[in-house]
Structure formats: C-alpha cells, structure tokens
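So, can you check this one?
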Amino acid sequence: MGRNKIQMNLIQDNKERQICFRKRRIGAVKKLMQLSILSGCRVELKIYYEEDNSLLEYRSDKELGLSITKPLESYLNL
C-alpha cells in the first residue's frame, strides 16, 4: 500500500526532531543537486538550524562548480 501522510506539527521530542531535521536536510540538498544537473539551472540554498547553530550552504554554479559548505560560525558573527 501507499505511504501514510505525516502530520505537519512540531516534533516535541528534541532527539527525534534533530534526527528528522538531519535526514530531511540531506534529502533537500540531494533534490536540489538533481534539479540543477537535470535542468541546468543555478541553485542556492542556505539552511540555518538555531538549536545547534549549524549552517548548511549549497550552491551550484557552472563557473565555480558544485560546492557544499558545512557549519560556518564566522558567518553567524557569534
């Protein structure tokens, strides 16, 4: 049978919320990579997660190539 629909509410358990965030963040980056490769478009994504002060950046640029940057605390000016 098909998949069950997920209720779109904040996950109350902190550990479960972090696990869900990490998995979905990776999935979002994979989809953007596919979109930029298949359609030839330029894509830029920044995901900031306040609970662990992490910043994930993805940019596809034909001149610069593909680049993925992990958490940047200097970007946050902390």
User: Anything to note?
Assistant: The two ends are 48 Å apart (CA to CA). DSSP finds two helices and three strands in the chain. The longest strand covers residues 54-61.
